[in-house]
Design brief:
73% helix, mainly alpha, MetI-like fold, 286 residues
Length: 286
Amino acid sequence: MRNKGLSYWLFLAPVLLALSFVVIIPLLYGTFYSFTNWDGITAEGFVGLSHYIELFQDSEFLNALKFTTLFSIASILLINFFGLSLALIVTSKLKSSNFLRTVFFMPNLIGGLILGFIWQFVFVKVFASIGDILGLQFLQGWLSTTETGFWGLVILMTWQLSGYVMIIYIAYLQGIPNELLEAADIDGASAFQKFMKVKFPLVAPAFTVSLFLTLSNSFKLYDQNLALTDGGPFNSTQMVAMDIVRTAFTDNEMAYAQAKAVVFFIIVAVFSLTQVYYNKKKEVDL
């Protein structure tokens, strides 16, 4: 840091200012208000840890946290599986690979609310029509139960982010030296053996990045949850972000909502940093 010149800090200053005003300062203010009776306008009275004690006895918040955790696990696994699969397809020297990359990436360009309404139509109208034609009862009322609502959200999230994660895997797959693949061919390795013994270990940095992004995005999901199920039925598909927003702006309990947000931030940070730490240890230097 001692060798950094004035130009370095001038270029870095806008980013540091934006990070400070948008993330760090609001986080500090929010943490402070979580220990008060803040109502969105004034913060009268210091209540200590009472909000934090209350939220760990709040069944609705705990159910939302459990649902969010299960949803994140399922989404992370499926998004990375399909993202890597798509990356392998478009890097396999197909003539239409550039076209396929565009098609696979396009869902990521659609806004979360619009995606939610599109898939709500698919799950409610299209699935019901298919169910009527084929006589499949399980396709009726797809979003009316907790289980189908859960998988509806997972399908939506997987469809949206698989193409984005694909781009990350493509960058690392294309960076694998051809000499290694040629040596594997000479040794008589099959396509599966080349993937497991050569490609898979060398894309470990991509796993670190993609797992971090999918984990953080899955935990913070709000707009798709709002548009697709609105937390129903009976708040059983309500995720933590939605629970926090409703506590703040529907119940008008700003300080309590802020306490939930602080706890949620800590949980996401711990999961994300732990994942990055363990994945970094497994990376293979090219």
